[in-house]
Design goal:
Layout (H helix, E strand, L loop, with lengths): L6 E5 L6 H12 L3 E6 L6 H4 L2 E4 L5 H19 L3
């Protein structure tokens, strides 16, 4: 269903989730812009995504908290009033 120009947003705490990586790779082959949100060292996700946001933490709970904050900020910024 994905097509050129779509934006795909992927979240993986470790950046190593195989299904997430494969999904982004497929999206890129279809011409989508890919955004990856990860933590730790970014894993493979940071290199696969067109744009990578890597939370600079070494703790999964903190990574998830930062990811949640980013998602809330994006939701607030993207909602049309």
């Amino acid at each position: 269903m994905i097509k050129k120009g779509d934006v795909v947003f992927a979240i993986s705490g470790s950046g190593k989730s195989p299904n997430i990586i494969r999904g982004l790779q497929l999206a890129k082959t279809k011409g989508a812009v890919t955004i990856g949100l990860t933590a730790f060292d970014g894993g493979v996700l940071k290199d696969v995504a067109s744009v990578s946001l890597v939370a600079p933490v070494k703790n999964m709970e903190q990574a998830e908290d930062l990811h949640l904050m980013v998602c809330h900020i994006l939701k607030t910024a993207l909602v049309v009033k």
